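Researcher: Sequence recovery benchmark, item below. Answer with residues only.
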């Protein structure tokens, strides 16, 4: 079994952007050597992906939401082990479908779909967008739609947003339950 190494955001961003005259070539050389030998196995954690997005949208880089989607797809295309890859991929689809959402919110919603049967308690108005749209969940399989009530609850009330499949055999679930 090969060794594993967790890649830090600073190295990942250098590999994605290639923008530093000294550090980027070194990061690429290490990455290429590691991939070629499959040792160590490179692991990208979801927290590293979150931080990479934050770096790319910072005032230094000012990347657009569309640029973020491309960068996230680039990360998923790398020959590395992305921890919770299916969840990260589903979050990329959510971000592509609703560019007004933050990456972190998309990742939280994708985790809710993957491990909490679509249940998410939130005060976040962006996640309570009352316009449901089908979103392909990639390797998670079925299409998913966030179902919300006709009204958005006041910010002083918590809401449970239920995400369900849009497949024909999907069960009907309540849209929003106010706390």
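Model:
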């Amino acid at each position: 079994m090969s060794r594993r190494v967790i890649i830090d955001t600073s190295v990942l961003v250098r590999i994605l952007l290639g923008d530093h005259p000294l550090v980027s070539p070194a990061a690429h050389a290490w990455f290429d050597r590691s991939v070629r030998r499959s040792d160590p196995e490179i692991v990208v954690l979801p927290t590293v992906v979150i931080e990479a997005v934050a770096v790319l949208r910072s005032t230094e880089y000012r990347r657009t939401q569309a640029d973020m989607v491309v960068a996230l797809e680039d990360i998923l295309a790398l020959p590395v082990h992305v921890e919770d890859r299916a969840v990260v991929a589903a979050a990329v689809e959510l971000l592509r479908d609703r560019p007004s959402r933050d990456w972190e919110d998309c990742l939280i919603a994708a985790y809710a779909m993957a491990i909490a049967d679509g249940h998410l308690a939130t005060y976040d108005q962006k996640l309570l967008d009352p316009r449901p749209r089908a979103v392909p969940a990639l390797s998670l399989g079925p299409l998913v739609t966030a179902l919300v009530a006709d009204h958005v609850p006041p910010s002083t009330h918590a809401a449970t947003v239920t995400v369900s499949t849009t497949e024909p055999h999907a069960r009907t679930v309540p849209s929003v339950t106010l706390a």
